[in-house]
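testing teh design pipeline on a random one, pls ignore if ur not involved
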């Protein structure tokens, strides 16, 4: 492929004046902030799409964190005493409240700068998971009969007990999905939660909390604290009975080490450098459209986003031409209408990271096939969806997560080369395979070292399957969200076993030696009749 001229690299712009920017009234902001436990310094947040100030939010101190855990722990005991079916009622109501609440979408947009459709998808995610766990939690948490030591004489049951108070640290990129969707199973398992959302997106968390309280959740069960890791991070770990964290791999390692010192569990979803494989029998039109969405949705600020594209040599040129066309057609914009595809990056840090990766690649010989430039005419952090060709291992973008609207494309000779390159990374979060033969796709998927692999979809088919576990391998995390695994993460296993008629002590008049022979004979019979 040859580099297109500059006049062809821009995605379409819209939304600069077509619809009002997402805005939140001062009264709503004041009401939401009033629910914060914070006596620390006030931090000002701004709308990424415009740079306009959003809110001044009080941060928390270590003492505020301690008080939040004390209040949560006190309320947790009564909550845990309820049956799972009783605990499920607020979450079934939350489903309806979230779907009907356009104001929640406004807040997500205002704080993140993402498109209306991407913000809407977050509300669907929360609604769907609330309904799923609301209907299935009682089944997942039910006690289970287990085979006892001696048939009939030993009765054993497995119970799931809540851990107590869960510390949840959630990121800014999907503030609704990655905060509330972890909180739902934690609460339904009988726990309370102390939640530290990212400061930039605290209003989203506070509004979601309001809705869940409106749905019937006791207010003290969900405590929100705010602040930098140096101030509130360690106090959260010091008080929590389990930690749930979504963020960078470096931060995840530190949290895992701190949790290990206290012998508490942690659930971690961390970074990714996600591959997509386009095989020689793929429907190229569908693959190009799917790739554009998988690479650039939420401006690439999604842990599941595709950043590496491995394309079979036989279809490489045709596929890349189609992908470039799809990418150039994406509409950049802002506002509350559904009239654009891609919003803005959320912070100066993310913007700088994208610029550094693209310029480093250019300087080392990579070719920009589409995008590759900021759009200050739209806002301070806008950057065009970008496709790079000719990326080599000496470039920063080759192996490091960009977390922005940048994808690198590579020509591969065959399936085995694609599999090898897809696995040639420290990360293992998500992957995508495009083929007209699902069986072929499944065979390849089984060889990809990622927690989720999608066939003929970028990430949605796996992530939106609420009954299936979702999480990372290797440096992309540990533990799983969603499904039975996602709620059992927040429970402690307990076995209660009772003995009847026959015990392990020798019966009266039977010596220890004779008793040993009786027990050995019993075990032989159990093997013969396949009792164990």
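output:
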């Amino acid at each position: 492929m040859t580099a297109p001229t500059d006049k062809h690299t821009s995605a379409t712009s819209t939304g600069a004046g077509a619809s009002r920017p997402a805005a939140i009234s001062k009264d709503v902001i004041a009401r939401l902030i009033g629910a914060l436990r914070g006596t620390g310094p006030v931090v000002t947040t701004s709308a990424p799409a415009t740079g306009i100030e959003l809110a001044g939010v009080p941060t928390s101190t270590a003492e505020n964190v301690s008080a939040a855990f004390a209040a949560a722990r006190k309320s947790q005991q009564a909550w845990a005493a309820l049956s799972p079916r009783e605990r499920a009622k607020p979450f079934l109501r939350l489903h309806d409240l979230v779907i009907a609440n356009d104001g929640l979408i406004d807040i997500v947009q205002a704080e993140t700068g993402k498109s209306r459709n991407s913000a809407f998808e977050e509300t669907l995610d929360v609604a769907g998971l609330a309904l799923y766990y609301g209907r299935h939690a009682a089944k997942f948490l039910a006690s289970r009969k287990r085979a006892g030591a001696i048939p009939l004489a030993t009765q054993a049951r497995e119970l799931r007990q809540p851990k107590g108070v869960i510390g949840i640290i959630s990121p800014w990129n999907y503030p609704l999905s990655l905060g509330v969707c972890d909180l739902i199973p934690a609460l339904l398992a009988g726990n309370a939660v102390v939640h530290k959302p990212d400061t930039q997106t605290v209003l989203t968390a506070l509004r979601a909390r309001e809705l869940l309280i409106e749905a019937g959740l006791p207010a003290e069960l969900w405590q929100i604290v705010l602040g930098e890791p140096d101030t509130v991070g360690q106090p959260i770990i010091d008080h929590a009975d389990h930690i749930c964290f979504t963020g960078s791999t470096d931060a995840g390692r530190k949290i895992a080490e701190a949790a290990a010192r206290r012998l508490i569990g942690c659930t971690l979803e961390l970074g990714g450098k996600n591959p997509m494989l386009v095989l020689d029998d793929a429907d190229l039109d569908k693959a190009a459209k799917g790739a554009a969405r998988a690479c650039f949705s939420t401006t690439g600020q999604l842990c599941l986003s595709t950043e590496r594209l491995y394309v079979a040599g036989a279809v490489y040129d045709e596929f890349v031409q189609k992908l470039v066309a799809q990418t150039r057609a994406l509409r950049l914009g802002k506002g509350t209408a559904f009239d654009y595809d891609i919003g803005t990056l959320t912070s100066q840090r993310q913007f700088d990271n994208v610029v550094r990766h693209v310029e480093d690649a250019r300087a080392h010989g990579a070719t920009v096939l589409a995008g590759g430039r900021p759009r200050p005419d739209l806002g301070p952090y806008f950057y065009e969806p970008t496709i790079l060709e000719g990326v080599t291992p000496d470039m920063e973008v080759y192996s490091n997560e960009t977390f922005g609207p940048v994808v690198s494309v590579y020509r591969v000779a065959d399936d085995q080369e694609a599999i090898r390159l897809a696995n040639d990374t420290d990360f293992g979060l998500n992957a995508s395979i495009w083929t007209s033969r699902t069986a072929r796709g499944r065979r390849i998927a089984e060889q990809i070292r990622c927690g989720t692999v999608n066939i003929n979809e970028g990430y949605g088919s796996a992530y939106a399957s609420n009954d299936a576990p979702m999480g990372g391998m290797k440096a992309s995390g540990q533990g799983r969200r969603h499904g039975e695994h996602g709620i059992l993460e927040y429970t402690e296993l307990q076995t209660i076993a009772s003995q009847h008629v026959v015990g392990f002590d020798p019966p009266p008049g039977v010596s220890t030696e004779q008793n040993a022979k009786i027990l050995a004979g019993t075990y032989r019979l159990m093997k013969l009749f396949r009792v164990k």
